[in-house]
Design a protein that fits this description.
It comes from Photorhabdus khanii NC19. The structure is a single chain. With about 190 residues, the chain is mainly α. It has a domain of about 120 residues. Helix content is about 50%, strand content about 0%. The chain contains nine helices and no strands. The protein is extended, with a radius of gyration of 22 Å. The termini are far apart.
């Protein structure tokens, strides 16, 4: 005889979000390697200090954008959906199980309105690279790049041709200088 199982009820459990994230997960490695606290001081001039709504933690916003990049999440909406169900992402962002994830609009508006017209991303990138160099993760001897072609989620019926110069940044200039010095020591052309 076929029986219909009773509705599943889950008894209350006490657990830590820390227990749900494997010790070897990439977000744990990034969290251990990079101190993100410098971001608040760096972006403070971009915020109004005496009026407006309370701001969402800028460290969380930057970490959310980092998650998009690290895990190949194609959109801010998809990122919010992933954070809602992924305990490792919540742990990395310091979001409790019942805390609300900032919505995609908040993330995109901060990126477009607050961060886009400044060099804050370049400073954040440079600081993270400097931390990686300081911890021995970047030696400067070899440079690997990813030249994978990605299919874009773009509207094929609407396009704008915009030429945007991309600054190489201080890190790339230092890297080029180090490569040229190394080549000179080896007797090779610079």
């Amino acid at each position: 005889m076929l029986r219909i199982p009773p509705p599943q009820t889950f008894p209350p459990e006490t657990l830590s979000l820390d227990d749900l994230v494997p010790q070897n997960h990439l977000v744990r490695k990034v969290d251990a390697a990079v101190d993100f606290e410098f971001i608040r001081d760096l972006v403070a001039p971009l915020y109004c200090h005496n009026n407006g709504r309370p701001a969402i933690d800028p460290v969380m916003l930057i970490k959310m954008m980092l998650l998009m990049s690290l895990f190949g999440i194609p959109s801010e909406r998809r990122l919010v959906q992933e954070i809602q169900v992924n305990m490792a992402y919540r742990w990395f962002l310091r979001l409790g199980l019942t805390e609300k994830v900032p919505d995609a609009s908040t993330l995109s508006q901060n990126r477009r309105r607050r961060f886009n017209h400044s060099d804050v991303f370049q400073h954040i990138f440079d600081n993270i690279v400097e931390q990686a160099i300081g911890r021995g993760f970047v030696g400067g001897r070899e440079l690997y790049t990813n030249s994978t072609h990605l299919k874009a989620s773009a509207n094929p019926h609407q396009s704008d041709s915009i030429l945007r110069p991309v600054p190489s940044g201080a890190y790339l200039d230092e890297l080029e200088k180090a490569v040229n010095e190394d080549r000179a020591k080896s007797g090779k052309k610079a």
